[in-house]
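We treat protein structure as text, and this decision shapes the records that our systems exchange. The tokens are whole numbers drawn from a learned vocabulary of local backbone shapes. One such record is reproduced below, unchanged from the form in which we store it:
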Amino acid sequence: MSRRQPMNTRPSPAHRTHRTHRARTTLATLLFCTFALYVAWHAAHDGEMRPVDEVPLPAAHGEGPAAPGDATAQPEIVKRGEYLARMGDCAACHTADKSRPFAGGLAINTPFGKIYTPNITPDPDTGIGQWTESDFMRAMHEGVGKSGERLYPAFPYVEFTRVTEQDVLAIRAYLNTVAPIHYKPPANELRFPFNQRWLMIFWNLFNFDEGRFVPDPQKSAEYNRGAYLVEGLAHCEECHTPRNFMQGLKSSGRFSGATQAGWQAYNITPDRAGGIGGWSDDALMSYLATGVAPGHANAAGPMAEVVQNSTQYLNAEDQRSITAYLRGQPPVAGGVTRSRDSYGQPANDDITALRGTVITSVNGAQLFVANCASCHNWTGAGVGASAPGAYPSLIHNSVAGAASPDNLTMTILHGVKRQTKDADVLMPAFGDALSNDQVAAIANYVTKQFGDPQASITPDQVAALRAQAQ
């Protein structure tokens, strides 16, 4: 006859310790097996189709006795590298002080802490002057630094891995010609355990597929060029694709929009309501070149910086290729049934009704007239029509017509600064001059009169956006 333990009997401390040890051993075994499978998968796929424009490293270096970084011997490679570096917007992230281009030190805020960008000038002590071409290639393609340290994905190696060897070497050749700057950026400020770089092995397991771009034989050369740019150096998904809980890109929502530092990077799929399906090719190319898509949108915030530092320098062929590629993506409506640029009508009665009226509270129409009408016209129709430096209309404006007034509010708070070959656009920031109540009142007036009347924002929400580090 067997004996049973009483139901309230607890395991002994020794038994609990053994059980905990066994659980940890099992977890460690599972992690090791997962990593081993990851390594085996890559080994098995090394023999898969090679990108058609990839060449062995010696051939990519070019012929001749000079080193690939010798600007005097290979000026065409350096010129190409400068174009590619602009396409990748390298200067934007690696320049905190414009007097020290490419010297790094820019703070990038993440949910896990703050990352400071490194110095990529050819300084031998604080930059990449002692990096070999293989070191540079490994960083771009694999996300691994010179000393074997795992790089954080704030550096978009997830996309840069698709860039050909020739193009990576051209970028390196160009960086070899910039002025070396002796400057050591601050150390990263990441919380434990996110400051443990080795953990990136597991992040990569779920969020990174190393390998060069392979053209789709079923698509046109123009489409494939656009895919190579958008999925690679231009790294458009970094802002326009939502992220998973690990901060990796969600493959199920590519280009459907995401939020960065309080700014909404809008849906750029070809859906006519939720995305850019209603834009003409010329409008999209104009937006890339100038930051203005007439009748649709004007770039502000991070996108204004992208236009200023990167896309305005693209040649017409690459602009067309990007347009062709975006047109070919699956449309994502995201629950939107009406395009953002279809809203609005000129102000009339509500503005004229202010004449002779004593205002005793925060009034959006009055604040609009006092702070905005001199540039955007009291009707909201803008000043300057379609001239490069025009003050944009708020009618049929995708920021005013957005379901969320966040970008409109951020524009009021921080203004706009966008310098291109065509115009130097400047809207002053009102964050220091207006309270949260006043900013909310202006934003709500603009959305009600010129945009989506269902969109609204509270003073507390303005305060939260104001607190976002830029």
Residues 13-45 form the longest helix (33 residues). The beta strands are 107-110, 113-116, 189-190, 258-260, 263-265, 292-293, 297-298, 416-419, 424-427. Residues 1-21, 35-73 have pLDDT under 50 and may be disordered. Residues 348 and 366 are 13 Å apart (CA to CA).
